[in-house]
């Protein structure tokens, strides 16, 4: 029997309605990330500060007269700040999300199937958000739970009820900003290495410029050019810590919103099934 | 049952479709109807074949005109169309970091198959296209011919109602090319799937398709059943003369006889039904030329193509 008479049959089975392809994309990328030992190691390492903080909470609840280990709102603010290193590493691990697809011309295959560009982008963003929130929001909220559990009362939570929305807001905004930014950079290149280096370069350059211009001019408003500083302004306001911010909180919100908007604009322009060279 | 899978009405219809890239029109005022079955989309490089396929899939938005695929409007129901269409692109394309079976199964899931069904279908179509033994290898290790086969597999995995094949034999060796054409022919004639085969290779289209649409410079030059087009225009002769050939060509064209050159040193001359070899001998003699070779020939798709795109005679 010729080989082409073997195996091919018409498909009579179930077909899922359109609209669910984003989850196929997201699940595939999530599983691909979990197959990398280095990446899983990074995620596990990101929970080490959580373990340290749990020990701190244990001592603060067991030995209330030790001021050095006292837990308050600033503890959670500092914890989120300290997770920045892992946020950075997880973000640049996502550098190839769209760049790898562009390198092998996969966009043509994706978009010739019954999924829209929005579904494709959502499918790519979801893993980035899951991983970023997995090293920020999840440990921070769990830390709050551990505080309540180890203290044996809800008094800390009731006195600091704002911590729940504060943690959620800061972590979600931070995750959205970096996820969109890395996706946008990934969409304009075919090299994941270039994307990672560019992301790191832009981040550190803007932070350094911000510091330099503040030192030269004496104006703290230059913090507005550094996305990291804007996240800090938002976080300090949400956690009710810190002194006078370098820029008003609405300015920080606008800057962050503008960066996310710019990223969305880049994604809309770049993610297409066909590259047209004019 | 196979006939029931074919549609009586055209599977693809274009009305005054125009696609522009900057200032250049890739398709201009294209009106065509692709019947059910196997249809060849012929044309030289740059004629607009790939642009047409991409426009039908919604990858390129036309500047004007309307298109319908399987009865659905491309402008309003692109996703429903793409769920029922399989596309084999011309250029190398794959999903990164996957082996063949994962790649094809993933493609099936993206097209709406449940995960388990997609995996089973992936195995089946990979065997069907001849990659059964290599299905667990990374696609990075595949040869050009294998990559063409896997592109066909991902287009077939969700059992589409209509296949778009863009240069399916690109870069393949002669044996691989023959096997690919056999697959395409089997898909169209034995499996009852409608397909549009876009190619600049006339033998590929002639072997696999029943109908043809010829594009040239972004417009439809001719269209119809291949047998009908080949039979049109009377009779075909091979002619070689000694003398002022351009003068003879001018005389032939003045007498409403078209001709085109071949790779050999002969012309293929298309003579109306009421004229024959004697007419050609008399015309040559009248212009002082000696006929060195004159033989009746069988019309080919190359003749249809040459007449349609107005290929000049050397």
Describe this structure in words.
The complex is a heterodimer of chains A (278) and B (314). Chain A has one domain. Helices cover 71% and strands 0% of the residues of chain A. Chain A has 14 helices and no strands. In chain A, helix 1 runs parallel beside helix 8, helix 3 packs parallel to helix 9 and helix 9 runs antiparallel to helix 11. Chain B folds into two domains: 224 residues, Rossmann fold (3-Layer(aba) Sandwich), CATH 3.40.50; 78 residues, Alpha-Beta Plaits, CATH 3.30.70. Chain B has 314 residues and is α/β, with parallel strands linked by helices. In chain B, 37% of the residues lie in helices and 28% in strands. In chain B, the strands form three sheets. Chain B has a six-stranded mixed sheet with strand order 6-7-8-3-9-10, sandwiched between helices. In chain B, strands 2-1-4-5 form a four-stranded antiparallel sheet, covered by helices on one side. Chain B has a four-stranded antiparallel sheet with strand order 12-13-11-14, sandwiched between helices. Chain B starts with a helix and ends in a 5-residue tail after the last helix. In chain B, helix 4 crosses helix 5. Chain B is built from twelve helices and 14 strands. Classes of the chains: A mainly alpha (278), B alpha/beta (314).
């Amino acid at each position: 029997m010729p080989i082409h008479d073997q195996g091919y049959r018409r498909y009579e089975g179930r077909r899922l309605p359109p609209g669910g392809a984003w989850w196929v994309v997201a699940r595939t990328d999530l599983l691909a990330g979990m197959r990398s030992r280095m990446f899983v190691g990074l995620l596990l390492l990101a929970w080490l500060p959580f373990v340290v903080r749990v020990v701190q909470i244990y001592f603060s609840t067991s030995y209330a007269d030790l001021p050095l280990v006292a837990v308050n709102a600033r503890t959670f603010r500092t914890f989120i700040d300290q997770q920045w290193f892992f946020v950075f590493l997880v973000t640049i691990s996502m550098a190839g999300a769209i760049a790898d697809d562009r390198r092998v011309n996969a966009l043509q295959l994706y978009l010739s199937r019954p999924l829209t560009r929005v579904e494709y982008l959502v499918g790519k963003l979801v893993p980035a958000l899951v991983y970023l929130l997995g090293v920020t929001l999840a440990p921070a909220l769990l830390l709050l739970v551990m505080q309540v559990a180890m203290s044996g009362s809800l008094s800390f939570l009731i006195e600091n009820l704002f911590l729940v929305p504060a943690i959620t807001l800061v972590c979600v905004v931070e995750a959205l900003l970096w996820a969109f930014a890395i996706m946008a950079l990934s969409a304009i290149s075919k090299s994941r290495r270039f994307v990672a280096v560019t992301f790191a370069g832009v981040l550190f350059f803007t932070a350094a410029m911000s510091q330099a211009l503040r030192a030269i001019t004496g104006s703290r408003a230059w913090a507005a050019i550094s996305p990291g500083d804007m996240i800090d302004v938002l976080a300090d306001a949400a956690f009710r810590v810190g002194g006078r911010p370098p820029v008003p909180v609405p300015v920080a919100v606008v800057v962050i919103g503008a960066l996310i908007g710019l990223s969305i604009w880049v994604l809309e322009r770049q993610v297409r099934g066909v590259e047209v060279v004019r | 049952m196979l006939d029931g899978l074919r549609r009586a009405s055209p599977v693809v219809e274009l009305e005054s479709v125009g696609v522009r890239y900057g200032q250049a029109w890739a398709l201009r005022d294209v009106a065509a109807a692709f019947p059910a079955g196997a249809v060849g989309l012929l044309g030289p490089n740059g004629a607009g074949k790939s642009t047409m396929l991409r426009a039908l899939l919604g990858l390129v938005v036309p500047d004007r005109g309307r298109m319908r695929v399987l009865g659905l409007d491309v402008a309003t129901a692109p996703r429903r169309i793409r769920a029922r269409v399989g596309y084999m692109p011309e250029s190398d394309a794959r999903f990164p970091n996957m082996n063949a079976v994962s790649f094809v199964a993933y493609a099936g899931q993206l097209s709406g198959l449940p995960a388990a069904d997609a995996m089973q279908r992936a195995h089946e179509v990979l065997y069907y296209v001849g990659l059964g033994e290599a299905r667990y290898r990374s696609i990075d290790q595949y040869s050009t011919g294998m990559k063409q086969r896997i592109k066909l597999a991902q287009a077939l995995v969700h059992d589409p109602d209509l296949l778009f094949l863009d240069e399916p034999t690109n870069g393949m060796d002669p044996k691989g090319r023959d096997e690919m054409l056999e697959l395409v022919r089997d898909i169209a004639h034995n499996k009852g799937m409608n397909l549009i085969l876009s190619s600049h290779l006339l033998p590929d289209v002639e072997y696999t398709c029943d109908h043809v649409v010829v594009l040239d410079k972004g417009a439809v030059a001719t269209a119809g059943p291949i047998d009908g087009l080949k039979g049109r225009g009377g009779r075909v002769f091979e002619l070689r003369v000694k003398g002022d050939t351009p003068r003879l060509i001018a005389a032939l064209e003045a007498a409403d006889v078209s001709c085109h050159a071949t790779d050999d040193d002969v012309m293929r001359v298309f003579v109306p039904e009421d004229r024959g070899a004697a007419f050609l001998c008399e015309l040559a003699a009248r212009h002082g030329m000696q006929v060195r070779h004159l033989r009746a020939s069988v019309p080919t798709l190359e003749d249809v193509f040459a007449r349609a795109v107005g290929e000049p005679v050397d």
